[in-house]
Amino acid sequence: MKDTNTIVLFDKASNQYKVIKFNDENKWVADEIEKLVLEKGVEPKAEEPVKEPEPAPVEEVKAPKYKLTFDNQGHGETLDPQEDLEAVPTELPLLHEEGFEFKGWALEPNAEELVDLGLELQADTTLYALWEEIPQPQPEPEPVEEADDDDDDKDEAESDTQITYNEETHTYTVIRKKRAYEGRICVASKENKEFYNQVKNRLLSYGLTSRISKQGEKFRLKKEQLAQIKFTAKQMVLYLALDPKQFEGSKYVGKDVSNKKTYADTPFQYKTKSERKTQWMLELVDLLAQNKKLEFVEGYKDKDFAKDYPFMDEQGLIDKGYLTISEKTVTEIKQVEADAEGEEEAE
Fold first, then answer.
1. Which residue segment(s) compose the domain that 193 sits in?
2. Domain count, the chain
3. Structure confidence by residue, pLDDT tens digits, 107-118
4. Neighbour-count burial of 239, counting CB atoms closer than 10 A to its CB (0-12 exposed, 13-18 middle, 19+ buried)
5. CA within 13 Å, CB half, 237
6. Three-class SS of residue 330?
7. Is residue 338 part of a domain?
């Protein structure tokens, strides 16, 4: 390396010497601080690092706060608003009301979508509760029982009556088969016999006594007649000492037969050929007992009355005296109808 020229500079501010060296070609060789011996043996101070100025503190910008109001839309409990919120809370209150299902909160009263949890608020906001009504199970309609068929008794009479016409003599031959009350029980269906058991036992359990005739069965409390039972070809018929007007418009679809002398004491007629109507018939017997202040006979046990009336064919009924057969010749059909009406009045 060629010889260098040296320039020494003294910086009063830092109390340091700065040595700059150049070569013969005036090219810079180095810039360094050399330790020089000053007068009285004092060495120059080493250069201290320049401290950069600390940055000015940045003032924090606070996000705005808003109020969140809850509209329950008329269902559930009322909620207080929430203050000083920047966003929709990630957990929102739940509401409850019987008959409704709470679906959640939305930004509109009739919205189809719920509000996003954590949504940044831009202003005071109202959330609306969304509800869905829970369908209530509809009660099964009360079965409307068919009105009593007034032709039931006529069907019984007609089924037991045979009419033939003789063209030579221009006369009618009427063969009438008439079953007594007990004969009708014998040919009744198994179900109707069971209904008979239930109703008769309920009447007797209140202390009533029974008396059977060819026309039917009467139930009395001492001398007061409170009920009657009869059978048609299709069903059992109960007559009770109850006011028929009391049951107008109710499930107890019966008939007022107070216009007939036979039923003056028991004017409310009620028929059954189903389990449901038999249960209602038992309810009517209980109502009768309540009206008459009858008490249940302590220790009463149900009996199987139907077993005394097994099914019998026609000859068996005749042998037991439950069936009579009569034959009559008339010249006009009106006489047959008149005879039938007379028998009905006799009953």
1. 152-166+178-296+303-325
2. 3
3. 999 988 999 999
4. buried
5. 24
6. strand
7. no
